[in-house]
Please model this.
Amino acid sequence: MDRTTGPNHPPPPEKPKFLCIPARPFTCFITIFGILKSASSFYQNPNAGTGAFAFILLTIDLLILVGLSQNSEKCYLWTLKVTFIGLGFITLQFLIYPVIVASSAASGSIPNGYQELAFQMMNRTFGGNDEMFLRGVMAGYVMELAFIFMIALQFVKAVLITRLWDYEKTLEEMR
Model:
């Protein structure tokens, strides 16, 4: 007797979740956050390098959002592939931007108004008057932390889309 017929029909699998949050709405929320981040980073600093990465990541997040809205096994599979492409671009940014920002801060190209308290604390901790070096170190660390957060969000997206794909695949097999 076939598994999908008869009184012994297995119950459908539980919908995927992230902690206690349903996976699909949470993934959409993370993706919309990525869209807003890409758009704001382009408008804050519209140069060629930032603009290219912002446009690529904006396009990737829009494609992910379209794939999530389709709610089918095939769309989840290509959405997963697009998510890994986005992970590669964010990792590339992680390798490039902290060095650029740290160098710019150390050379004095970045305004220092909002960072003054952190630099005073670092001067007291490490001693010395090498303020520009400390500005560069601090700016580089802040950028690294920001990109680690972005990589973690992209990885969470990939895990959740994999769960959604497995769920849809299981539902298709049961039909």
Observations:
- The chain has one domain: 22-174.
- The chain is about 75% helix and 0% strand.
- Residues 131-174 form the longest helix (44 residues).
